[in-house]
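Appendix B, record 7
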Amino acid sequence: MGVTPDLACALDHARRQTFELVAPLTQAQLEATPDPIMSPLDWDLGHIAAYEDLWLVHRHGGEDLLRGDLAALYDAFETPRTVRGDLPILRGRAVREYMVAVRDRALEVLECTGPGDGTLFEMVIRHEAQHNETMRQTLFLAGLPGGRSDDAGIRPASGDEWITVPAGAAAIGSDGERFSFDNERPRHAVYLPAFRIARRPVTTGDWLTFAEGGGYERREWWSDGGWAWREEYDITRPEGWAAAGDGLAVEEGRPVMHVSWFEADAFARAHGARLPTEAEWEKAATRERETIEQTGEVWEWTASHFTGYPGFVAYPYPAYSEVFFGDRHRVLRGGSWATGERLRSPTLRNWDLPARRQIFAGLRLAKDAP
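Structure tokens (predicted):
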């Protein structure tokens, strides 16, 4: 890839978004862990800085780490989320001072050493944007400002239109003309039979009808794993929905979100449909004449497991994608209201466990073509 113009400006933009996100919060809120699957926000802040120091200052610039003693504390694989709140991480003013000091070092490397091909700088910028979205998930679970989609003013959706995509080959993955993560490469051809896909995501109104019509009680609509999960946790509605009288308090025109893959799969079965594969989703999203609408407000679960494309090569380290490959994680596509603009692309892949609901995720239906 070519050098991205004004990387210093892009670094600054990402940091301002991070600081604006946490500005309204108290120190107690920054240190809290609202759910075992999330990290304290102060850990995220320190991790953002440690990652930048590792890749831009140490690996690219050849300098020693600013705080080598913090490397293990902020290594996502050395420190599971369940223990991060108990670690001696930097907190409050100390973590912000660390972030500022690392940024000064990174900018000095950029000025003195240059950006190279720009890839590592792009990776660090996008890494911070990714953590902004993860932090918004934490804020959502904690019921704090910045964690709900109403803050973004999602446009209402309506209608039940379908697009028929004819059989044929599709080019899947990044074409290499812009930054992409290793799991988006290499671009390859996939033959797909004809299929139909909904023009718009499933809305909260659609989900309300499903929930009030027995969607969480009808065993035949659920996979074995989904039903076991639903019973174990007594799941009766999407995460964050509150009961209101005989119904549920929702805004019916918006895309439904905070539903698990298990729930999305059950909804599709209840409607005589299925979830699209990620190749179907990408082909539909990139067709020249007709395309699916309203992508980017909510991540969309697909039927696909998260695996590497043919010829996959890990970069810049195996732990970014490769360690998650297999049949445990499902792929999501499209991005959400909380996804940074720099990240958005029809080839962008996200992944999570099928029971997870903190992610800003919904679904779009698909069917085999008659």
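Remarks on this record: The longest helix spans residues 119-142. The chain has two domains: 7-147, 152-368.
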